[in-house]
Amino acid sequence: MFTKYRIPLTALAIAMLTMSAAAQSKQDTEKVTSLDSSVITLAEIWSLDQRVRSDVSLYLENSREFNLRIDSICFDKAIECIRHFGWVTDLRKYNSTHGYLLQALTAVMLHSPHRLMDEDVYSLLRTEAEAGRLHPETLALFLDKYYVIYQKRSLYGSDFRKFLQPPALNPEDRPLSDSLRRDIGLSPLPDSLFRQP
User: Which of 52, 64, 85, 138 is the most exposed place for a label (fewest CB within 10 A)?
Assistant: First the structure.
């Protein structure tokens, strides 16, 4: 009686084992794919961003315009990377060979400080800081570069203030500085960083 069902039962058992193994294999592949995808994305961003700065042939006519376009492409890729993977802080098995790629997002943010003023971008980076993936002082550095370059003042007290003359912060900016720093999880700056009237 069971002989005539033996082949279908065996086939069913093999099919179930195959499906179970495939499901496990798919989970393992997704873990690897997510890590690999983040590394590949960071490598694309890093190579494009750094290549444009190291290739002497690009310092020809229209090189500034070309660099700005590359910076824009890199910035868009970086924001998509952050939205998808978060601010990447660990490449696990790739740390020893590709750890330098962790600098890619930082480099891109520093090359396009004007883009950080977009409300969606600011909110995304603040969320990453709140989650502990992006250090608030690093975010302050990115944001302060914008103020130093475009408004000739420092509001976050980063090292970019040293490019100002004088490098001390304006006391009139104190309330705004305190508010901006608190918004990203930092305490107000000490009195010693503000010029005395």
Answer: 64
Distance of CA 119 to the CA centre of its chain: 16
C-beta of residue 154 within 8 angstroms of C-beta of residue 169: yes
pLDDT truncated to tens, each residue of the chain (197 aa)? 545 544 555 555 555 555 655 555 555 555 556 778 888 888 888 888 887 666 655 556 667 777 888 899 999 999 999 999 999 888 788 777 777 888 899 999 999 999 999 999 999 999 999 999 999 999 999 999 999 999 999 999 999 999 988 888 899 999 999 999 999 999 999 988 887 65
Model-wide pTM > 0.85 = no
The gap from C-alpha 115 to its chain's centroid, in whole angstroms, comes to 13
